[in-house]
Each structure stands twice: as C-alpha cells, then as structure tokens.
Amino acid sequence: MTESPRAAPNPRRRSERSRRAILSAALELCAENGYGRVTIEGIAARAGVSKKTIYRWWATKGAVLLEAVIEAVVSTSPLPDTGDVDADIVTHVTSVMRAFTSPVIGPAYTGILSELLHDEALARAVNEELVRPRVALVHERLAAGQRAGQLPPDADLELAVEMLYGPLYYRHALKRPFHEPDRIAVLVAHVMRALRAPAAS
To answer: What residue stretches are annotated with the HTH tetR-type domain (predicted)?
Structure first.
C-alpha cells in the first residue's frame, strides 16, 4: 500500500511560541554579530528549534529578519489620529527615526537593505510587506487631514510622503547621524508648509 503524498506545509499552522522565539533570536544575533554573520543554523540553535522548522516557514534568513523587523517597526512606530495632522506626523516620523537607530531593529534593517541590490525576492518583499503598507498609512493620515480642511485639496500627498521619509533613508543609507527630535519637528514643519503653499502657476 503506497503512502499518500503529504500536504504542503501551511505557515498558518506554525506554532506561535516557536515563531516568536525564532524572530527574537534572529534580531538578537543580528544585533550581536551583524547581519552577515547570522545563519539559519545559529537562529535555530538560539531559538531552540530545528533548521527544518525555520525552512518550513521562511526561505532565507533575510525573510526571517524581514518579518521580525516588520513586527518591530509596526509596534514601535504608530501613526495616531489626534485630530492634529502636523503633530501626528511628527510623532510618526520621530518613532521611525528611533526604530532606525534602535540597537535591536537598526542592525537587522541595515542588513536587509544591503541585500536588496542582489536579492530581487527580498527587494519585492520589503516593498510589498513593509514599505508600501507604511507609505499607504501615512498617505491616508494626510488624506484625512485634507478631508478635515487642515491641508489643501490639491496638495501632492504622494510627494509629501517621499519628502518625509527621504531624509531618514538618506541618513540611514549614508550612515550619517540622525536628527534629534526637535529637528524632526522642523523637517515636518517644512514639508507641511510646502503642502500648504499656493501651487505655482
């Protein structure tokens, strides 16, 4: 009697305890040793799981670390809606800056970004799972500001998001010191003032 083929592993059936242990282990090892020295074997040993368990849920260490970074960024960089769009954007951009400089999140995200030029699958995942959802979140908060009359109806919100995030990625990519929180407030003020300026004829 032949054995029936096994069903493909379903990521939704994975153990939440093991998943969290793996993500934590990946971030810890990256912070301790740098992205380049992180291995699936090392993550498995630190998390107390088998390599097979990790490969059942993620294809590469980059995928593991990306999921860990996404969860950390989402939990540490909220975008509130207090009714004051300027203050809310300052809160959000400041929290993103703190995530970039976090000793836990920062090394992992730096390593992921360094891989994008020669890992197309990881580049797609970063854009689809992290960048686009966060950009959409900021865009919607600005759009809510428009609906509330705090921003003009013709403001270019897509460009505004690039203006807000661009300086952070510029400093992150070139390893330049990040702005202090008061400078973040100045940056946001400049962007919001540009959005409210009359359009050039």
So the answer is: 16-76
